[in-house]
Write a structure and sequence with these properties.
Layout (H helix, E strand, L loop, with lengths): L5 H5 L9 E6 L2 E7 L7 H4 L4 E3 L2 E2 L11 H13 L7 H6 L3 H7 E6 L1 H8 L5 H7 L3 E4 L8 H6 L1 H9 L6 E6 L8 H10 L1 E7 L5 H7 L6 H13 L4 E8 L7 H13 L4 E6 L4 H14 L4 H7 L8 H17 L3 E4 L3 H5 L15
Parallel strand pairs: 2-5, 3-6, 6-7, 7-8, 8-9, 9-10, 10-11
Antiparallel strand pairs: 1-2, 4-5
Helix pairs in contact: 3-5, 6-9, 13-16
Length: about 350
């Protein structure tokens, strides 16, 4: 019998507040929270699939991350319910919300048990998911961020999913830690449809460090891609988001597409940066500091919309589609409903990617 994980051990200590300290790693602190309904239905999220997020918050600290709102929402609910430990409320309140998202990670307690209950064979959800609806793990957090090395929540969830047949499961991650779980991913792939989406927006190590401060290096991700595909696991690469004026040089994008093809990727997906709410509040000050020459162009382009202009998006899609064809990869386009309508619009006057 294996030893209990640190998270399992903490559940034995009673009584305790609902949000409970689990420890710290450098300047990051971990807190346990109840898993609740760990499997989120499409009608709850507005997305066209079911989703699971093993953690709330993400230590990788990507400057463009759109999911920061989720952390603040949970913390405010916990505070209103009196569920925070003494001192935790003031600790979080003194941090800017974007920083709390990166430095105060919430670990979903007993999440595998909650998922097992939700997927009880013969239940309504089990029948729905066996009918072809997808489950995506990691829509608002990276399931293989550093917390996973210690708490193993993601692995526990995958082991539950691997108990079932006929599901459709997707994982989104930037982390080579996913290779630790090749054994359970292989079991899952035998019993269900399984795809891993590896996120990679640049091969430039120094540029990546500025944009994604604590995320694994591009080289580490490429090595993980090779290990996964060598194990027979289908992996696609999400070049998302493409950052206008920063990661959109066509030559750099070609090098990326060629590299992931050489490491066995089956497809590439890409879309341009979208800036809403909490992501805007973090990203635009980052541009001011790190790329001041782009400051005015970003503020002009994103002033009236969360998206860059139509010409840019269409140019990016055509460029990536052409590169994928050149290197033998499938091209996966990610469009909103508004963008679907653009497919029938006249093409822009130039075939070159239009920068801001």
């Amino acid at each position: 019998m294996s030893s209990p994980s640190p998270l399992e051990l903490t559940t034995l200590r009673e009584p305790h507040p609902r949000f409970r300290a689990l420890g710290a790693q450098s300047d990051i602190r971990y807190h346990a929270v109840p898993a609740g309904k760990v499997l989120n239905a499409p009608e709850q999220t507005g997305m066209g699939f079911w989703s699971i997020n093993p953690y709330i918050g993400c230590a990788f600290g990507c400057t463009y991350c759109y999911a920061r709102y989720a952390h603040r929402y949970v913390m405010e609910r916990g505070s209103a319910a009196g569920a925070l430990e003494p001192g935790m409320r003031s600790d979080v309140e003194r941090l800017p919300p974007w920083m709390a998202f990166e430095r105060r990670i919430l670990v979903k307690e007993r999440a595998p048990d909650a998922l097992r209950a939700a997927l009880a064979s013969g239940g309504a959800r089990h029948r729905t998911l066996r009918s072809g609806e997808s489950i995506v793990i990691g829509t608002a957090t990276d399931p293989y961020q550093p917390a996973e090395r210690r708490f193993r929540v993601t692995r526990g969830l995958l082991e539950v999913l691997a108990e079932h047949r006929g599901l459709e499961v997707v994982i989104i991650t930037k982390s080579p830690l996913v290779t630790r779980d090749i054994d359970v991913l292989s079991r899952l792939a035998v019993r269900s449809s399984f795809t891993l989406h590896l996120s990679l927006i640049t091969l430039d190590r120094e540029l990546a460090r500025r944009i994604e401060p604590r995320a694994p290096t591009p080289d580490a991700r490429l090595r993980a891609l090779g290990r996964l595909t060598s194990a027979g696991i289908e992996v696609g690469v999400n070049c998302m988001p493409v950052l206008p004026g920063i990661t959109d040089d066509p030559r750099a994008l070609e090098r990326l597409v060629r590299a992931v093809a050489d490491h066995g990727a089956s497809y590439v997906g890409a879309c341009a940066l979208r800036l809403r709410g909490s992501a805007r509040a973090r990203y635009l000050p980052f541009i001011d500091r790190e790329f001041p020459a782009l400051r005015d162009r970003y503020r002009t382009q994103y002033a009236a919309s969360h998206q860059v202009n139509d010409r840019y998006r269409q140019g990016l899609a055509r460029l990536m589609e052409r590169l994928c064809a050149r290197y033998g990869l499938r091209w996966r386009s990610y469009r909103t409903e508004d963008e679907d309508a653009e497919r029938h619009a006249p093409p822009p006057a130039t075939s070159q990617l239009e920068l801001l």
